[in-house]
Write a structure and sequence with these properties.
The complex is a heterodimer of chains A (about 110) and B (about 110). Chain A is mainly beta and about 110 residues long. Chain A has no helices and eleven strands. In chain A, strands 2, 4, 5, 6, 9, 10 and 11 form a seven-stranded mixed sheet that branches. In chain A, strand 9 and strand 10 form a beta hairpin. Chain B has about 110 residues and is mainly β. Chain B contains no helices and eleven strands. The chains are: A mainly beta (about 110), B mainly beta (about 110). The interface between A and B is medium-sized, with 25 and 20 residues.
């Protein structure tokens, strides 16, 4: 089944404790992206990747890092999480940068205390 | 930069027709998407417009006017399961790469 998976789905952590949210797609998509969704602000893009070893900042990259060492995986790293990073995070992928459809993962609800 | 406006909330009755509007201001416009998102779930793709006009897909249709920076999503024969948020998203081409900017979404409540 074609899908985007994220882990963990739910995470409660404390300020300053490094964490990684994994994202994997099995559709051989080139383009992958991370969004955060907050009430009243909608989905905002954090980082995106055009292909292996090609990443760029989205609209809200501060406090986040990403890597794209393999085509299928695009982990999101929070080196020192803070409470303002409490949010719902979605990973998405699409075949190429000009593909119409982005496929979203199920989301990761992160709480930073 | 980009600016996308949608109504925050709409209500409608089962079996009715509802139109959800989206206006946008962006440089480098390269297409407009509509996504559906049920509470607590991932957004799912509904439609895509890059040229002016109407795209129809079953009960859902989407319209685009690039000169007016305006789109709408039309939902016909509403069903209870259509209660969800509807996200308008604009693709803009910056430095040759794809960027997708989302509006804050319109929450649609369908009542019996």
């Amino acid at each position: 089944e074609a899908q985007v998976t994220q882990n963990p789905r739910y995470l409660i952590t404390v300020t300053g404790k490094k964490l990684t949210v994994t994202c994997s797609q099995n559709m051989n998509h080139e383009y992958m992206s991370w969004y955060r969704q907050d009430p009243g602000l909608g989905l905002r893009q954090i980082y995106y990747s055009m292909n292996v070893e090609v990443t760029d900042k989205g609209d809200v990259p501060e406090g986040y890092k990403v890597s794209r060492k393999e085509k299928r995986n695009f982990p999101l790293i929070l080196e020192s999480p803070s409470p303002n990073q409490t949010s719902l995070y979605f990973c998405a992928s699409s075949l190429s940068r000009r593909t119409d459809t982005q496929y979203f993962g199920p989301g990761t609800r992160l709480t930073v205390l | 930069g980009q600016n996308i406006d949608q109504p925050t909330e709409m209500t409608a009755t089962e079996g009715a027709i509802v139109q959800i509007n989206c206006t946008y201001q962006t440089s480098g416009f390269n297409g407009l998407f509509w996504y559906q998102q049920h509470a607590g779930e991932a957004p799912t793709f509904l439609s895509y417009n890059v040229l002016d006009g109407l795209e129809e897909k079953g009960r859902f249709s989407s319209f685009l006017s690039r000169s007016k920076g305006y789109s709408y999503l039309l939902l016909k024969e509403l069903q209870m399961k259509d209660s969800a948020s509807y996200l308008c998203a604009v693709r803009a081409v910056n430095t040759g790469f794809q960027k997708l900017v989302f509006g804050t979404g319109t929450r649609l409540l369908v009542s019996p």
